[in-house]
Design brief:
homodimer; 394 residues; alpha/beta; Aspartate Aminotransferase, domain 1; 2 domains; 14 helices; 42% helix
Chain lengths: 394, 394
């Protein structure tokens, strides 16, 4: 008997890691609808709906606004390959794992990449970006992570955009852990390329990377000297596929697009502002609870994400024991640290559907049971009580 | 009222185009299961099951055998970027649209690509491949399309593999429209990289590209001079993510992987041999019916696919009228021609779930009603009868 011969029934999980998050049942139901051909008029309407809703969520009028058929990481690569050519110069803000990944991907485009290194746990400093830009005569693009999933840190996009544009460069922003949970105002802030993933605050399964590109960046794409090195992620081809000409490129992942359509409907029914406030309120409750347990938050105080909270693992407490017990005995997933923070911090996501008081209280209650088993004494109700109080504030 | 404000209910379609095909309800149900984290032990077992089943379907023992998180087109790119570096030489057999695409993607890797051009409708000629290889001292890889989706033509892989290996090159094979419907024997034939898509004969929605890579190709990957230009499709990173080390790379598209697991279970429950025979039988029925209507098949007689049948549009008959009426009045999708065959041929897929007598008869019956409206006279039952007879043969 092979294990694949058995039907699979996933155990029930409360997904409070860095993503995926649990999704609204409406999204799963939408994905179960019968398939359509990707050039069927009925499916073309679905594509149009998705474009229209993504523009609202990104707060943009950009023509190029659609999901790329890959995960959030394909979004990073899409942003980089479309504007960077061999010999170009780029600057990337690196204040965590994903900034580093962005820099690596830019290097694979043949660009010379200058990193603005920032200590993990701190936001990217606009002054440091300005100083780096002043060192190089011709920077084509600056990349930064809006919400660093590895540290739980928010960086200031609008302020950096101004500096970047003063140097006539494009600003590329990773909004994987912010879009749909924290405001992302592409046009107002002056972002040239922004991408995200579906499995975080948009409340869908992983598999698609919503991308938007400003007319200024589109001009750079159109006038580049060499073809985009990735045929699959070439926005000049994808632009035609997603436009009214519907020039055949690849076969869109129909079921995932159905799901994204429904996920975006859920987002817009709630309203963006209400959604941001919900994420802020529940994150504040979680932070209050964790601090009441004596735990120290990892991210700098005024730069903490409302979608993902990073917290230092107390001295003497085993990372793997705690996460293992949470998963096995409580059905709760939280994330471990990445890179230099591995074993030193936990990452707790409250994203999309899971940004709710019940998730906050369930997790804190479980930690109150588990931490004493690790020799870290806390009283029952110590964290839950503080969170409840915070959540109850007007 | 925006159209996205309404719930979406796709119209019912019989998908007989080049893909996607309709999927087994078990697959859609599996995709609706609650999400797991991508590093959850329960999900890791799902990944292991998928790898094990894909090895059976590809008929290979290759360690690198897993789905890449993109559509079939991402499979082409994966194959190319992992072995080709700037300055390399490649040979690509071009006997249709997808051979041309493969060549284009190889060129975007910085390789010099020599095309073995073959008339559309005919298979790639092993002698022509041999002759092309003899012209170039150092060819790193040869690419070919096993089942050309644009023409409905099957090309001989095993024979070409022998020639390619005699020249110490790698053989890359596109099995998008064959895997799961027509035999693909990776190890026995000596294929070095093979990729497919999920939305054709594997009976799943589009969105994943199963890929397999031989130890010989893996050696080329490991010893390359420059990093793979695509970080997202870098098999040296994906290999670790899909191995027991589970080194974090991207977030696997959980729901799609659930669906692929169930789709592969359906394939193996039927049995590969039975499945190939089913595709052969139903394709023979369709061909008999079309020919009984006086239509001429496009692909060369002894090289016709059992998964996709191409047929010439008769003089005076409107491509768009016929396909439009099929879709609107009968809920049947068939494919138009691509590139030079646009407006000249239809492409009819009988793949996975849809390789069944009911699909053959439903389509032929509809054509018998529609063609006379276009001034092409056929009698009712003329095609259906011939198909029924052929389908009834032992």
């Amino acid at each position: 008997m092979h294990s694949y011969q058995e039907e699979f029934h996933p155990p029930e999980r409360l997904l409070l890691g860095p993503g995926p998050s649990n999704v609204n049942p409406r999204v799963l139901k939408a994905m179960g609808a019968p398939l359509l051909g990707h050039l069927d008029p009925a499916f073309l309407r679905v594509m149009d709906d998705v474009k229209e809703m993504l523009r609202l969520v990104f707060q943009t009028g950009n023509i190029i606004t659609f999901p790329v058929s890959g995960t959030g990481s394909a979004g990073i690569e899409t942003a980089m390959v479309n504007v960077l050519e061999a010999g170009d110069t780029a600057v990337v803000g690196v204040n965590g794992y994903f900034g580093d990944r962005m820099a690596q991907i830019a290097e694979r485009c043949g660009a010379t990449v200058h990193r603005v290194e920032t200590e993990w746990g701190y936001p990217l400093d606009p002054a440091a970006v300005r100083a780096e830009l002043a060192k190089h005569p011709k920077v084509k693009a600056v990349g930064m992570i809006h919400a660093e999933t590895s540290t739980g840190v928010l960086s200031p996009v609008a302020e950096i955009a101004e500096i970047v544009h003063a140097h006539d460069a494009l600003l590329i922003v990773d909004a994987v852990t912010s879009l749909g949970g924290i405001e992302v105002a592409v046009d107002e802030w002056g972002v040239d390329i922004c991408y995200s993933g579906t499995q975080k605050c948009l409340g869908c399964p992983p598999g698609l990377a919503p991308v938007t590109m400003s007319p200024r960046a589109e001009e750079v794409l159109t006038t580049r000297k060499t073809p985009v090195q990735s045929w699959y992620l070439d926005l000049s081809l994808l632009r035609s596929y997603w436009s009214n000409t519907r020039a055949y490129h690849h076969t869109a992942p129909i079921s995932m697009i159905y799901g994204l359509r429904e996920g975006l409907r859920v987002v817009l029914e709630e309203g963006l502002e209400a959604r941001y406030q919900r994420h802020a309120r529940n994150a504040a409750g979680l932070r209050a609870g964790l601090e009441a347990l004596g735990l120290r938050l990892f991210a700098q105080e005024d730069a903490r994400l409302n979608t993902l909270t990073s917290v230092r693992i107390p001295e003497g407490v085993s990372d793997t024991n705690v996460r293992g017990t949470l998963l096995k005995e409580h059905g709760i997933e939280i994330g471990g640290g990445l890179g230099p923070v591995a074993g030193k911090a936990w990452r707790i996501g409250l994203m999309g559907e899971n940004s709710k008081p019940a998730a906050v209280l369930t997790l804190l209650s479980a930690l109150e049971k588990i931490l004493p088993q690790e020799g870290y004494e806390v009283a029952q109700g110590q964290g839950v009580g503080a969170a409840e109080q915070k959540l109850g504030e007007p």
